[in-house]
Amino acid sequence: MERKPVALNAGTIGHIYGINSSSQFCGGSTYTFYTDPNPSGTYHWAVHGGDILSGQGTSYIQVRIWDAYGTEPYPFYVSVQTTDDCGEPTQFNADASYINCNGAPGDPTLFPYRVFPNPVSSVFEIVPNNIHHSGLLTAVINPYSVQLYNKDQVLVYQSLSLKDKTTVEVANLPKGLYYLVIKDSTGEYKRQMIVE
To answer: How many CA atoms lie within 13 A of 165 on its CB side?
Structure first.
């Protein structure tokens, strides 16, 4: 199914085209962002809330926005550091948001794990949706990996789980926004986490 953004206002913030503070993108979709080209310049892009598919090192990038779940918007950031003909660096930043454009907000089948609590202050748990406790496990556990990244996309936690519940300790992490990535044989699932 093709996903269409609810609102997309092309514009400029700090010479990044294709995004402005009122832009709202569809989770799971691909977009292009660009800056003014300079044949002798260099470009280093950073994205939070998506993955760069192509264009790193050039004046434009293609980004796949992370999947969105529920009804709330997620923050999305793009920045580019460029150098001019003399090698002087300049950085431009832009922020917007992305949403679930699937039309099924909160559907637990879209995110096959329960993650709670969120926001979290000390510990959160991850439980596959196909697990039900009634004395016996009613499903076979598929292995899944858990990764937690800070807002700068630095990996701060990683594990591989074969259990019906994974507990993640975050009490020693600085407060702020984090990105949880869970990978299993069916795909990759991303969710924002707030440590407070």
So the answer is: 8
